Predict the structure of Aminotransferase-like plant mobile domain-containing protein.
Amino acid sequence: MSFGEVTITLKDVVTLTGLAIDGDAVVVDIPDEDWSAMCLRLLGRAPTDLGGGVIQITWLRETFDELPLSASPQTTEQFARAYALSLM
């Protein structure tokens, strides 16, 4: 059976991620110098080439490749955040 082209719909996004698709968009205006501090707070580390709040997916995947077996709950949360970011 041939289906032709397939498009991801907003319903697919809700089903796969559990994220809400209605309501106002979340937009945050953060000065460039604060992005590094935010990364350090939420991920525990920040890329050296963090320009305009852009994090390279390759940096996320290389830096958070494998969760250490003896990871603390805080480290586990940081790795989970990095994983979620890499899906976007």
Observations:
- The longest helix spans residues 73-87.
